[in-house]
Amino acid sequence: MKFTAFERALQGTGASRRLRITGRTPGIVYGGTGAATMIELDHNALFHAIKKEAFHASILEMELSGNVHKVLLRNLQMHPFKQQILHIDFQRVEATTRMTIKVPVHYTGEENSPAVKAENCLVNHVLTELTVSCFPADIPEFIAVDLSEMKKGAPLHVLDITLPKGVKFVAKGQVNPVLVSVTAIVEEAPAEEAPAADAKDAKGAKGGKAADGKAAPAAKPAAKK
């Protein structure tokens, strides 16, 4: 993906606030052999760009001062409740330097798996992205995972899948986290209805009648002494 950025001279909170009022977004590009450069971008164009998955997990071409720089999106600061980008960070990409980046995971085939078709289970996507390390040329747009062989009681872990060539998983806390879990669907049995005879007896007792349909005898008055 390509986008255009412009150098900015003014820095500070006040300058950034005035920049946003004019429909621009402040940002910075750093890394590589060059010094950090303060930039600004058109907010509307940027807002549409961040809706695309490739903008977050692929090498971008940034045109700046007549030159094209290969960069990666590193940080995106959004307004707490407005649809507004407050600040954005990019990192320059060098072909000989390994990068650590988060890549989305795309799952397919679960509707054809034995777990769903035959074993009445629900397939849960635990992770939707993976942190990986690779050279810029090997960064995948996404990692495809086929779930058509999922079975009841057999979750899928990171080490169970094959990553693209040159891509290594970066463990952060868990060496082999769960990608997908399988949960059996438990159906509740319908509540049993009370027999009709019981309802009839209850109605007869309420009307002051015996079980055989005859009126219950009245109680005899107490004998006087």
Report on the structure:
The chain is α+β, with helices and mostly antiparallel strands and 225 residues long. The chain is 16% helix and 36% strand. It has helices spanning 13-21, 43-49, 53-56, 114-117, 196-206, and strands at residues 2-7, 24-30, 37-42, 60-64, 67-78, 85-92, 99-108, 121-125, 129-134, 143-146, 156-157, 168-169, 178-184. The strands form 3 sheets. The protein has a 6-stranded mixed β-barrel. Strands 10-7-9-12 form a 4-stranded mixed beta sheet, with no helix packed on it. The chain has a 3-stranded antiparallel beta sheet with strand order 8-13-11. A hairpin with a 2-residue loop joins strand 4 and strand 5. It is elongated, with a radius of gyration of 34 Å.
- Judged by helices, strands and strand pairing, the structural class is alpha+beta
**Percentage of residues in strands:** 35-45%
Which runs of at least 5 residues are low in confidence (pLDDT < 50)?
Answer: none
- Residue-averaged pLDDT: 86
Radius of gyration, whole Å:
34 Å
Strand ordering within the main sheet: 1-3-2-6-5-4
Beta strand count: 13
How far apart are the termini? 110 Å
Q: What is the string of SSEs from the N terminus onward?
A: EHEEHHEEEEHEEEEEEH
What's the overall geometry?
Answer: elongated
Binned, the helix content reads 10-25%
Main sheet: strands, sense, barrel: 6 strands, mixed, barrel
Number of helices: 5
